[in-house]
Design goal:
The chain has one domain: SOS response associated peptidase-like (hypothetical protein yedk fold, Alpha-Beta Complex). Helices cover 10% and strands 31% of the residues. The chain has 4 helices and 12 strands. The chain is globular. The model has no long low-confidence stretch (mean pLDDT 95).
Length: 222
């Protein structure tokens, strides 16, 4: 799974990394370095609508048919193996995909003697990358709109396997356009992108302070 991640990068670097249209991304001005992004919090999302841009959405997907937004608290991840069929995700998988920018994520390794050690996983070159995500807009009775998102997960690669049996799907830059295509794409074309990341990554143990979302500062990476 993926339950915590970071996005500590200058907005200008996001523009370069993802080919964003700054004029269509007013939410870029709202971003500041984050070192412990947790479920239900606001995250930066690049949706498959219009010019490539950033929007802020709630992490934890709320299906359009949901009666209570609390369902999103349990839908922070979508298993890639069932994302095309599961009622909570299948509509978004067909039509509302997104990239979720990140500079790294955390996973907790179970130790043989008990307890868990938090690890920070990032690209070997420490550059920003993107999770495969899905998004929805939930409309309560008052007519307002609440956009939300989830991160798609898959089986682990060689870096993640010693830590956990799942990892977030990381979309390589050459496949951004496919994942962000507007409209409905054939499921096989999309499912082919849901696989363990094969590029160079690295992982290292970090501070146990990351266990609490109350802490959000660079020392979490020590």
């Amino acid at each position: 799974m993926c339950g915590r991640f970071t996005l500590a990068v200058d907005p200008a670097d996001l523009i370069d990394a993802f080919g964003l249209d700054p004029d269509a991304s007013p939410d870029l001005a709202l971003l500041h370095p984050r070192y412990n992004i947790a479920p239900t919090q606001a995250v930066a999302v690049i949706p498959n609508t219009g010019p490539r841009h950033v929007e802020v959405m709630r992490w934890g997907l709320i299906p359009s048919w949901a009666k209570d937004p609390k369902i999103g608290n349990t839908l922070i991840n979508a298993r890639g193996e069932t994302v095309a069929e599961k009622p909570s995700f299948r509509s978004a998988f067909k039509r509302r995909r997104c990239l979720i920018p990140s500079t790294g994520f955390y996973e907790w390794k179970k130790e043989t003697g008990g307890g868990k050690t938090p690890y920070f996983i990032q690209m070997a070159d420490e550059k920003p990358f993107a999770f495969a995500g899905l998004w929805e807009v939930w409309r309560p009775a008052d007519g307002s709109e609440l956009p939300s998102c989830t991160i798609v997960t898959t089986t682990p690669n060689d870096v993640m396997a010693p830590l956990h049996d799942r990892m977030p799907v990381i979309v390589p830059p050459e496949h951004y356009a496919t994942w962000l295509a507007e409209g409905e794409l054939p499921a096989p074309e999309l499912l082919s992108l849901i696989q363990p990341y094969v590029g160079a990554m690295k992982a290292r143990p970090v501070s146990t302070r990351v266990n609490s979302p109350r802490f959000d500062d660079p020392t979490l990476l020590d």
